[in-house]
Structures are given as C-alpha cells and as structure tokens.
Write a structure and sequence with these properties.
Layout: E1 7-12, H1 15-26, E2 30-35, E3 40-42, E4 47-49, H2 52-59, E5 64-65, H3 73-80, E6 86-90, H4 98-101, E7 108-112, E8 120-121, H5 124-130, E9 135-142, E10 152-159, H6 166-191, E11 206-207, H7 223-233, E12 240-243, E13 246-259, E14 273-275, E15 280-289, E16 295-296, H8 297-302
Parallel strand pairs: 1-2, 1-6, 2-5, 6-7, 8-11
Antiparallel strand pairs: 3-4, 7-9, 9-10, 12-13, 13-15, 14-15, 15-16
Length: 313
Amino acid sequence: MTKNPLRIVFMGTPDFAAATLQALINSQHEVIAVYSQPPRPKGRGQKMQNSPVHDLALKSDIPVHTPKSVKDKSEQQAFANLKADIAIVAAYGLLLPSTILDAPKHGCLNVHASLLPRWRGASPIQRAILEGDTETGITIMQMDEGLDTGDILAKSKIRITDTMTATELHDKLAEIGADLTISTLDTIIHNGKLNKLKQNDKNSTYAPLLKKEDGQIVWNQGALEIDRQIRALNPWPGVFCEADNKRLKILEAKPLSETTDKPIGTILDKSGRIACGNGTILKLEKLQPAGKQSMDFVSALNGNYIKIGQVLS
C-alpha cells in the first residue's frame, strides 16, 4: 500500500487522457472526482456522446463533472470543496483560472505531449512530426496561468522514426504519460515535493489548434515534407488534394530517393509515383476518392479515379 495515498481530481477529455486516468485508477491513490468536456453530438445521427474520460470514470464509479466553463465562482467553490491533494490535467480543453490552480494542496499538474518548452499548445504531437523532429516526449508540468509555461517537474523522451504516424506516436505518448504521472506522484509521496525547473521561454515553440485547411497538399513542397504532412494529419483533419476538381484524400505514401523533371503534381506511372517540389518524388500508396472507401493506388487507377499523366492540384 502506498504511503499516504493522494486524493486526486483528474481533468481530461480524449483517449490520450483516458490512459492516465486508467493508470491512476489502477494505482493506490484515490481519484475522488473527474472533470471532462460536456457530451457532444457525434456521427450521422448526431447523438450526444460522452468523452472517453467521462465513460471511463462512469465505469469506475467516479463522480463526473462536465461544466462548460470553470470561470464561474460557484464552479470554483465546488472544486475547492473537493479538498483534493492534487489535480492531474491531461488534454482537458478548458483554461483553468488561478482559483482552480491553487485549490489543491500540491496544485495542478499537466501531462503534456511534448518536451517543453518545445510545442506548447493544442497540437504538439502533429507538429513534432510535421517539423521533422527526431524526438519528442512527455513533460509533467506544474501549471500556472500561462499556456504550457509552468515549471517542469519530469520528462520522458521518445524517438520519432521516419515512418511514425500521429496515431502511433499518440498511443506511445499516452502510455508514457500514464507511467510518468504515477512515478511523479510517487516522488511527491516520498519526498513531499518535486524539484522544479523553469522553462526557457526563448526556446519555446507553439503548436496551434489544427484546422481543416492544414490538410491541403501543396505539391511544390518536397516529398519529405508532404510525407510528414500525411503522417502527421491522419486521421484528422486528413490530407487531401484535387483530382479533376474532385477531392482526393491521401492516406499513405512514401518518399523516394529518385528525382524527376516532370511538372509538379504529375502522376508519373502506374506504380503511384508523383512529382513534388525540387524534383523529388512521392509514391502514393493508399487513397480515398470522394464518397468512396479507401483503396490502394492501383485500385484507384483501375477505377478511373486518377490517371497516369494527370496533374493533381
């Protein structure tokens, strides 16, 4: 049994956060309440759907709070009344005022999916791949009122391979985040506090919220850059181009070492090679024409959704 288990409020919303919540539930600490984004309409039927964190909390008989904002004084008082030792925050989605941050005995810790101060903001996983970073990781941070600007308490690194997708990196980081959260809490239990390292703001970079238009391919980029875009932005917002004024999603591709002098965006042959910026070549492997299921390049060619010599835009 853990010495002096902590009373924890967990605040999070998506699958990434659910991994940490599950680790806390499995630990010797006590999760006394969960905060998550309110249920939202999803799918074709637009049925109201709980977040992954919300569902996990209900399954574990943990009280769930889903305020649209925590700026209201009554919400802040309700949070303070929980008398938590600490709050763990992971991809919650709401800004926390100082009254929330200061309420627990040990404040609020954030599980952030980057090596801060690099990639502060909402989309650190995707941005790390987009920019060709060779490593990223998890940072446990003591939250303040800034955007991911608080003192660093713990870090764990992971290598980004040349083929890693955002989904793969997300899942690995979710697991690392869960483990690092537990070890950080164990340090608090045994030492009574944590060593804190201030962030160097001069080294900070920002990862803004992704938009649908971020998925549009610009073929005059090099094949490596387009490959990173495809790996970073699937499944959302998805990467796309135009083929005869019809949207064509690009799901999988591979940069080649070959070069070409053909016009940018030209489909070169039946193997799926396409001309990109600076004479580079990208091999298209998996596509999704508008209104159709995903398919390999040959199937798209045979279905007449694309043609050899066609210039994609």
